[in-house]
Structure formats: structure tokens, C-alpha cells
# Entry
Amino acid sequence: MLAKAAIEVLQEPATIDSLVQKGFVVTPGDAARLASVATQDYARWGKVIKAANVSI
# Structure
């Protein structure tokens, strides 16, 4: 599965180092974890974006 392969690659020290050097924060997890974080971020930042009347 693609998800399993992606998780394996993201656990490799070289991959983690490369991403961290580019400013990423590597947080291991599965699709359910990503969905949870996205939902929390949307709830938090959605209010800020709407209050600031930001649009793209």
C-alpha cells in the first residue's frame, strides 16, 4: 500500500533530517491521525482566517 510505503520512508533518518532542514516538523502517524490534526487546525485557524477576512 502507498500509505505504508510513505510511513516507512518518513521514518528513515535521512528523510527526517532532510525535511527538518527544510523547516518541516515530522510527526509520525497514520491517515486517522492526519485527519484529526487537519480537523483541529481547521477549527483553530478557520476562525482566525474568517475574522481577518482573508481570502485566496
Residues 31-51 form the longest helix (21 residues). Residues 2-51 form one domain. The chain has a mean pLDDT of 91. Residues 7 and 28 are 7 Å apart (CA to CA).
